[in-house]
Write a structure and sequence with these properties.
- The chain folds into 2 domains: 5-32 and 265-389, Aspartate Aminotransferase, domain 1; 34-262, Aspartate Aminotransferase, domain 2, CATH 3.40.640.
- The strands form 3 sheets. The chain has a 7-stranded mixed sheet with strand order 1-9-8-5-4-2-3, sandwiched between helices.
- Helix content is 41%, strand content 11%.
- It is globular, with a radius of gyration of 21 Å.
- The two termini are 37 Å apart.
- It is an alpha/beta fold.
- Helix 5 links the parallel strand 2 and strand 3 (118-121).
- Bound molecules: pyridoxal-5'-phosphate.
Amino acid sequence: MITDMSTQRDLSASTGAAGTGIVFLDLKAQFATIREELIAAATRVLESQHFILGPEVEALEREAAQYVGAKFSIGCGSGSDALLLAQMALGIEPNDEIITTPFTFGATAGSIARIGARPVFVDIRSDTFNIDERQIEGAITSRTRAIMPVHLFGLPANMDAILKLAEKHHLAVIEDAAQAIGARWEQRGVGSLGTLGCFSFFPSKNLGGAGDGGMVTTNDGQLAERLRILRVHGCREKYHYELLGINSRLDALQAALLRVKLRHLDEWADQRRRNALRYRELFAKHELAQRLALPYCSHPKGHVYNQYSIRALRRNELRAHLQAQGIPSEVYYPSSLHLEPAFAYLGYGAGDFPNAEAASQEALSLPIYPELPLKDQCAVVASIAQFYRGNH
Ligand SMILES: *Cc1c(COP(=O)(O)O)cnc(C)c1O
């Protein structure tokens, strides 16, 4: 978790070492395009001196629910808290099991463990980096309460299969949509398909605030009501503790800024998809398409490319080569969660999830942010081509 936090700082500040000026994620470029709107929104909140929940948050919740296609949206402190709150709302208890992927950000499985439940890992598909829906049923036991798919890098997991299994076995589905706001499975927005959807407004996500923030979506009015109570210490009315809750609220400042950005989100997703298409064309031109496996996506609006992740043989050497030429890249993720010390108590070992382990050795994320200049993309691909030409 610390990695992602420090990464975000580095990414928005640092340009390539060799002075190419290429940036992995240029948040300043986005800020420049909406500066006045954001400053007006922040000023509005400062003038109001209303900082926590309140009308700005309610407006964002309405607008974001509509955007996602869910009936209800409940703002909260972070994407990690969204995952926790979703499980609290469902009444997940110690010894319950929740099935999820080991190839994800730590908060996915961390939230399950934090609740006291047991994360049960299922390997990923090698063609999408997402949980392998064909292996889920084999992991279901009498203690299983929910499936928590992650729409990794902005690409939806196979929700048809997951929803069908959930119905058959009476399980809840908690979508970890932290990286995927706006992504569609068939015609429906992620976060509106499962029992609950969890989103993050961390600055490097596609809809990023000026700090931490998150949201849970649902079509279930009772769950929505519980979530609203759980995020404010378990109180419907002040000082009357109906449930054991936590303090996890969205700030009015974040909500006001996010409302501005939400209006641009479709356009930014289109630009990310255009950049992905450009990479594809450039890879083809350099005859790299065979060498670099790319995630498979069947729906044109199915992928919002929070990350553009390729699979590359000799990934670490490639990354060092790029770095030496001033080309930034990132590794999401360098390890599969089942091999991390925090999850050792689950008793998994090397070889248990071969696709996740291979992905942690091969995945490399390239710059994909909406404003990324074409010439930067050309330089990235030229440098990759040079690496593989020079090495057999
Ligand atoms: C970012 C992220 C989270 C956590 O969100 P925060 O807002 O940083 O707490 C959870 N799951 C995934 C897959 C993420 O990428």
